[in-house]
Amino acid sequence: MTMTQAWLGLLLGGLCAQAGAWDLHGLKPEEVAVWAAPVEGDGPVIAHRADAAMNPASTMKLLTGWAALNRLGPDYRWKTSLLSDAPVEGDALKGDLYWLGGGDPRFDNGDLLSLLHSLRLRGIRRLEGRLLLDKRAFADIGGADDFDEDAGRAFVVGPDAHLVNLKVAWLTFYRDGQGARAALDPPLSGVALQSDLKPGADAPCPDVRRFVAIESDGSRVSVSGSLPAACDGQRAYVNVLDHDAFAGQDFAAMWQALGGEGPLRVERGRAPDGARELAAWQSQPLPAALADINKYSNNTMARTLFLTLGREAAGEGSPRAAAGALRDMLSQRGIADLSALQLENGSGLSRRERVTARLLGEVLLDAARGPYASEFIASLPIAATDGTLKKRFADLGPRLRMKTGTLNDVKALAGYWQAEDGRRLAIVAIVNGPQAKTSAKALDALVSDLVRDYRGGAMRSSAKP
């Protein structure tokens, strides 16, 4: 594509603005949507196909996070509780224990141990009844349709009121005087580990998965390969069991590690109104979860946050309630035309979700100008530093913070550039089409051009729709 063709393509798509032609770096004009505007200015300076409905992939997480910050506040915390209406006699709880899941997206084994330690501090050691999972926090977890071929992979793990450790167990690999072996952490009673590891030749071990094969059918994990000595102590995660089985078996393993006995079995059940709280755990504030969601593009956590938004805003933890809450907030803020917006689970792990570059850009402007700007911007990956941008934009460095998005036929970037004088540019660039798979370098070059022109003062005029 010549410079003239690129310029004409942008004009036809609705680009108005700066002097000079624009280079799409080989991207097809009809497959790209671009929007950019100064945070401290008026109107966009770039708007190419800004009102086209685009699949945003994981940049959709920005809408969910923005809505959650504004609706829940930065000090929002998830609560996980253990309840019972049974008496305590000696060191025994003489009845059922209810685990009221709060849908904490970051709840891990350390948090579970702290919760159970609080129960042990009450003097309870034996659980003589059932452990009942109270799942009232979420009425409907929704789905992510058309990802059947990815079943079993960690990135498609669904949300759950009793999400623990993102429903993954860790394999720790050892190569010492006892040879080559692996251990499952936590030691789940319903998961069998088969190991066929052999000592391998000396070699560096930047990633143990280069040397071992890991297979799992949910209840059986097999590891095989030749393990170099340098892999001693390295870890890899594996997705096992369903949510209820994982939570119940993890609970039992942690309880036994604290010297506890029981429970008899694990089932679902709703705690009676008169049940008393025996132990509770509160999460870190919302920004901690938001940083994990955006920096590492965690779909499970984003979907959990989306459901939490629905529960707190509309009294129902469901995608329908969450979508309504998000739409209401966009309308209240006067943000863009919502006719193209389609929501499935709020994470971008979706073939259905759609957003316009303009809407996403206006959310970025609102976030940067709002009371929670620092929390929102701090959650984004920092170029050449961390998260999904750790190995990208080395020439621009930490002044660039952007959320990435990747699916089949989708590549996206959305975030901010901050100039040396403190001025900020909000940028959205989305590619939809067969070319997306190989478009990462072109998309990075496109964003770099926007930053270069902004730094050089070329962006002064305002694009009109």
TrEMBL record:
GO molecular function ontology, one term from the record: serine-type carboxypeptidase activity
One Pfam family, short name: Peptidase_S13
BP-aspect Gene Ontology terms: peptidoglycan metabolic process; proteolysis
UniProt entry keywords in alphabetical sequence: Carboxypeptidase, Hydrolase, Protease, Signal
Signal peptide positions on this chain: 1-21
Keyword Plastid among record annotations: no
Superkingdom: Bacteria
Keyword Membrane: no
Stated family: Belongs to the peptidase S13 family.
Protein name as catalogued: D-alanyl-D-alanine carboxypeptidase/D-alanyl-D-alanine-endopeptidase
Species of the source: Chromobacterium alticapitis
GN (gene name): dacB
